[in-house]
Design brief:
Chorismate synthase, AroC fold; five-stranded antiparallel beta sheet; 8 helices; alpha+beta; about 350 residues; 19 strands; about 25% helix; globular
Length: about 350
Amino acid sequence: MGQTLGQQFKITFAGESHGPGYTVIIEGYPSNRIFDKELIQKELDLRKPGQSEFTTSRNEEDSFEVHSGVFEGKTTGAPITLFIPNKGQQSKDYSKIKDLARPGHADQPLFEKFGIRDYRGGGWSSARMSATWVAAGALAQEFLKEHGVQIISYTQSIGELSQIDLDYEEIKNIEWDHELYTPKGDVCQKMKEIIKQTKDVGDSIGGQCRIVAFGVPKNLGAPFGDSIKSKIAQYFFAGPAITALEFGSGVHAARLKGSEHNDTFLAEGGYQTNHHGGIQAGMTTGEPIDLLVTLKAPSSISKEQMLLNQKTQELESVSIEGRHDPCVVPRYCAVGKALLAMALADSLIARSR
């Protein structure tokens, strides 16, 4: 079971949605660096539930404890262990689906593979696991800042409604709506209306998150098997809900001719455009790494669905109780930023050794 990501900046994570909490062990972080607890908490606060009517009402503080690797406010070079307690569980909400597999969830595949599953909130397959990635990713972002790298993420679309494509200077100067983590304005308000309408009828909706890394050094990665693009994809597809990951022009490239898609060089260095999304031949080019992540609608909805009884192998019509996100995109912005940061930190540390 792959509970580890990275080789140089390496994290191992564990926990269950309705267990005591989640643990992440971070190996490879440099020693004698200031350990900024406030920075980590700030990133966790961006992801935590219960912040607005557009997310789950589950109330988790997502505070964390430091169990190793830090002494007198500085990193020691030893593995850093962080623990994020669970405090807002209501396990009784799941009692009536004890033997039922929910469509869109990991319930049936896990049961078929392991012969057992924790039905409370998905057990260890819960998206709550992403809190550990955000905590570790905060450290990765702090390390990257020392090398001039800044990562910004925001909600690009909800359903069929999308923000206009922002250029890189606009991204750096976004006036944020802190409920949806998207630029303020008419589109943001319409996004909120869409989520409300969807939630009111007991359903959920998907969308897209854009993530851009500025100041990335050239030549991280290598062609073919050591491609930085492959590494980034591994991190993102380790998580739930993602159905597509686009680099640069992404799927739009299918509609462009070579003369339109080729990024013309500048005599002074760099490129006129960035259709390649900051990566060519498996290596970073120095242009911003530009990602678009597509996330499906949350599978847990209160609308009645046909669930599979794993004991009788019969279908049952059930309305799932509990506190669920009508849309995961706003909270995912913190997760996506963390995943990209860890992938880049892993590559940057590897190059320096």
